[in-house]
């Protein structure tokens, strides 16, 4: 029986119609067993497949025995190639091109696969090819397509795809709307994001957070405040992410009243405090010069990290309490380059240039690598002290340690050389700078 089935396989599978997957798998298993290669159906093998190498072996065998054109098998191959971490989109496309009439599911799977590997341009091409073949998008098409977008793709295709979504009746679909809001917000196109946001009227807190985050990302903090006020009026309760976003906005705006309103949600037990939220509170109070309140939050924390300590150090340094800032700095269990730079900048603002250089030496001994902002502070201290030799050493240090030498650093070097009386070196740095701003020329 098996040998007869094996001999007539191509004819059998081309003429038979399978009422369900059980019959297909039964026949396929018989064929595969008769070929003495595998002991189970190709579908079952694909479900346990863990690499493209194995998938290609299975696929190659099914081609030989005449099963490779079965829709169920083709779907499984494409799903693996598109979704598995070792998948191969080029191989998926080869299989896709052999399917006479791909379903919307397969089109969406291909689009999702391109987004997964950050090839959104291929996803858009696939989407347009889908439309050209008379297949309409469904509620999954746009979310899959938009997930891989960057700013350039959003600018180039965002409006067109939004118009398509509206045309196909998805302007009131929350799932699709949220995908557009998220994409536009991440890509900095917050006006378009708000346009989509305004279409809906029953947003949960996560979607409000996406909009707030979008405004913060492009530094439109007043719009964040306005949107949060609207959120409160609608009776939508914030969560800890909302509060962190708003504390960040109020910190930048130096809006103490707004920050206190956020603090109210924590004090009244509406939102449970956590480390990130408490750090944001310290930062907000510090930015507004309310160090007693910042210190109160800091002292009552159950756990602190390097950000907590850096916020309190920066806060005291910013209000001129440099010795208190140093006291907290010395108590830090661990320090990163941000902590060191915050303390160095504090001394710099107080014109305590000797301490700037002394602290930088300590930083070097701690094996924490400075960044370009640290080096600008050190160069500024050298300029004020007229320490040309040390400034030259800093220049060499920047070059040897591959520290980003941008316009900011270049301006500091020019300033240091001029103040130390070495006009020739200042001119050399000026000529070597690839980008210059108004401070470079002055």
TrEMBL record:
PPR repeat locations: 103-137, 204-238, 305-335, 336-370, 406-436
A Gene Ontology BP annotation from the UniProt entry: RNA modification
Entry keyword Cytoplasm: no
Example of a GO MF term: RNA binding
Source superkingdom: Eukaryota
Signal peptide as annotated in the record: 1-16
Gene3D superfamilies the record matches: Tetratricopeptide repeat domain
Keywords noted in UniProt: Repeat, Signal
NCBIfam families named in the record: PPR
Name the record gives this protein: Pentatricopeptide repeat-containing protein
């Amino acid at each position: 029986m098996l040998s007869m089935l094996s001999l007539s396989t191509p004819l059998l599978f081309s003429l038979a119609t399978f009422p369900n997957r059980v019959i297909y798998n039964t026949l396929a298993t018989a064929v595969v067993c008769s070929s003495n290669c595998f002991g189970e159906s190709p579908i079952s093998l694909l479900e346990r497949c863990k690499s493209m190498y194995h998938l290609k072996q299975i696929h190659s065998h099914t081609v030989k025995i005449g099963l490779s054109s079965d829709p169920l098998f083709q779907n499984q191959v494409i799903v693996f190639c598109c979704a598995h971490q070792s998948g191969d989109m080029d191989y998926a496309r080869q299989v896709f091109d052999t399917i006479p009439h791909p379903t919307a599911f397969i089109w969406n799977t291909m689009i999702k696969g391109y987004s997964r590997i950050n090839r959104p341009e291929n996803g858009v091409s696939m989407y347009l090819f889908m439309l050209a073949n008379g297949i309409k998008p469904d509620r999954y098409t746009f979310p899959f397509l938009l997930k891989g977008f960057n700013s350039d793709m959003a600018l180039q295709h965002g409006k067109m795809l939004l118009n398509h979504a509206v045309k196909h009746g998805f302007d009131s679909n929350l799932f699709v709307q949220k995908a557009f809001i998220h994409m536009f917000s991440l890509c900095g196109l917050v006006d378009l994001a708000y346009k989509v946001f305004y279409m809906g009227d029953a947003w949960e807190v996560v979607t409000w957070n996406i909009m707030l985050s979008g405004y913060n990302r492009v530094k439109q903090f007043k719009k964040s405040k306005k949107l949060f006020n609207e959120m409160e009026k609608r009776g939508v309760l914030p969560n800890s992410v909302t509060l962190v976003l708003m504390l960040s906005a109020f910190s930048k705006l130096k809006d103490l009243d707004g920050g206190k309103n956020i603090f109210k949600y924590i004090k009244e037990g509406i939102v449970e405090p956590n480390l990130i939220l408490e750090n944001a509170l310290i930062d907000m109070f510090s930015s507004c010069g309310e160090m007693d309140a910042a210190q109160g939050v800091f002292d009552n924390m159950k756990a602190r990290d390097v950000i907590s300590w850096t916020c309190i150090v920066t806060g005291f340094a910013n209000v001129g309490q440099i010795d208190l800032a140093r006291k907290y700095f010395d108590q830090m269990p661990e320090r990163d380059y941000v902590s060191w730079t915050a303390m160095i900048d504090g001394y710099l603002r107080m014109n305590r240039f000797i301490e700037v250089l002394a602290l930088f030496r300590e930083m070097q001994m701690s094996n924490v690598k400075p960044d370009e902002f640290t080096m600008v502070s050190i160069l500024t201290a050298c300029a004020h002290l007229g320490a040309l030799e040390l400034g030259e050493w800093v220049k060499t240090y920047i070059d040897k340690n591959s520290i980003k030498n941008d316009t900011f650093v270049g301006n500091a070097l020019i300033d240091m050389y001029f103040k130390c009386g070495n006009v020739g070196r200042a001119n050399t740095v000026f000529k070597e700078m690839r980008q210059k701003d108004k401070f470079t020329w002055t």
